[in-house]
Specification:
It is a single chain. By secondary structure, the protein is mainly β. Helix content is 7%, strand content 33%. It contains 4 helices and 28 strands. Strand 22 and strand 23 form a beta hairpin. The chain is globular and about 60 Å long.
Length: 390
């Protein structure tokens, strides 16, 4: 049996979505999806996009293949071209080198209220593409890195010990509210809660059923594509927090979407089994590579196979807010300060006028409401606490 990583799995899903022999997932009739605009083109495949308040765009660039060199983080310059950021050894790591103070594999790039850039570095590569040794993080290689969006100065690096990141754990995404940082672990399954002021960290719901991928939810398309091979699907992956910080939401790409009040996550007196009693199942989403949430609590799912961005309201109403055959493998979306939804697409879309930039980032201007659902703006948390003096 062959074990496939998330990266290989999503590549196979994309190939399947392009096959006319396979049925596409049906979508209920609704209002016309909003028009897509090409916001940027990149020479490298991006799975994450984030923008500062003055619309400086950053891309997270995962190392998916051996045959194409890529930096890990890029910033769009005044001419519209993307340049490695911060433009030094942080973007020059190669397999076999020390990954302690370099980007190895960025899985999440995000910008919050203070306009700094936060990166989740998983510290390892796909065993299905790279060597088995490259699939195990070196000590200290799995980390969070905060950068100044203008200068590229490294402001902070957070690393966790084996009690928070045991063998097999894989940090995936992050969200802030106040001084509290939340992380999803898509390797073993779990939620990490870190207080930026006290430095205290909790690992919650580790390996519980509510943070595991649901084999029953795997699209039937997978069996058609890879027969009897074994898939190691990511566990708790997608992560969002409401603007008031009350609810934390998460899901594996397979779904379902869960939530819990953050007060319970922070309650050290609760064991994981007790904590699990406070978890609520919210929605059975289609297979999704990424998501985001607006300030009104709507979740936007980037559906891997359907070519849809599906909107889920807090009341449980759904609508396809964007849809296109070009939305093949959309991933980590981002809502900018000026209320645009940015969507990176991991399938190359060649253009004869720009053959060197085959990867597209789309944008959708968000209205005040869609399909009767009020639409909000960005969820920014609040400014991170000041850096400690030295």
């Amino acid at each position: 049996m062959i074990a496939l990583s998330r990266r290989s799995l999503l590549i196979n899903l994309a190939a399947a979505s392009l096959s006319s022999a396979l049925p596409r997932i049906s979508v209920a009739a609704g209002p016309t999806p909003l028009p897509l605009k090409v916001a940027a083109r990149s020479p490298w495949m991006a799975n994450q996009v984030a923008l500062t308040r003055d619309n400086v765009m950053f891309l997270g660039l995962p190392r998916y293949t051996k045959d194409k060199s890529t930096p890990s983080l890029a910033r769009r310059d005044a001419s519209g071209k993307f340049q490695p950021f911060p433009g030094n050894a942080w973007n020059e790591w190669q397999p076999g080198k020390d990954g302690t103070n370099a980007f190895v594999y960025l899985n999440s790039v995000h910008i919050f209220a203070d306009d700094t850039v936060w990166c989740v570095d998983q510290g390892s590569l796909s065993a299905g593409v790279f060597s088995a040794a490259d699939a195990v993080p070196q000590p200290g290689a799995q980390k969070l890195v905060q950068l100044d969006a203008r200068s590229g100065e490294i402001l902070r690096i957070l690393r966790f010990d084996e009690t928070i990141l045991p063998a097999g754990a894989q940090m995936n995404d992050m969200r802030f509210h106040g001084s509290t940082l939340y992380l999803s672990d898509s390797g073993l399954g779990g939620i990490i809660v870190h207080d930026m002021q006290s430095g205290r960290t909790l690992r919650r719901l580790s390996g519980a059923s509510v943070v595991k991928a649901s084999a029953a939810k795997i699209p039937s398309i997978l069996a058609h594509v890879k027969g009897g091979k074994t898939f190691h699907l990511p566990n708790s992956d997608l992560l969002e927090i409401t603007a008031d910080g009350k609810w934390l939401y998460w899901a594996a790409p397979t779904g379902p979407l869960y939530r819990i009040e953050t007060r319970w996550l922070k309650d050290r007196s609760l064991t994981d089994p007790q904590l699990e009693q406070h978890v609520e199942q919210v929605y059975a989403n289609n297979f999704a590579g990424g998501c985001c949430m607006d300030s009104r609590g709507n979740v936007y799912f980037s559906e891997t196979v359907t070519g849809n961005i599906t909107l889920l309201s807090p009341e449980g109403k759904t609508a396809v807010i964007a849809s296109s055959p070009s939305l093949i493998r959309p991933d980590g979306t981002f809502i900018s300060a000026d209320r645009k939804l940015y969507i990176p697409v991991k399938q190359p879309i060649p253009d004869a006028s720009s053959p060197d930039t085959p990867f597209v980032i789309y944008s959708v201007a968000l209205p005040e409401s869609f399909a009767g659902i009020p639409i909000g703006g960005a969820v920014e948390g609040r400014e991170s606490p000041p850096l400690p003096s030295h």
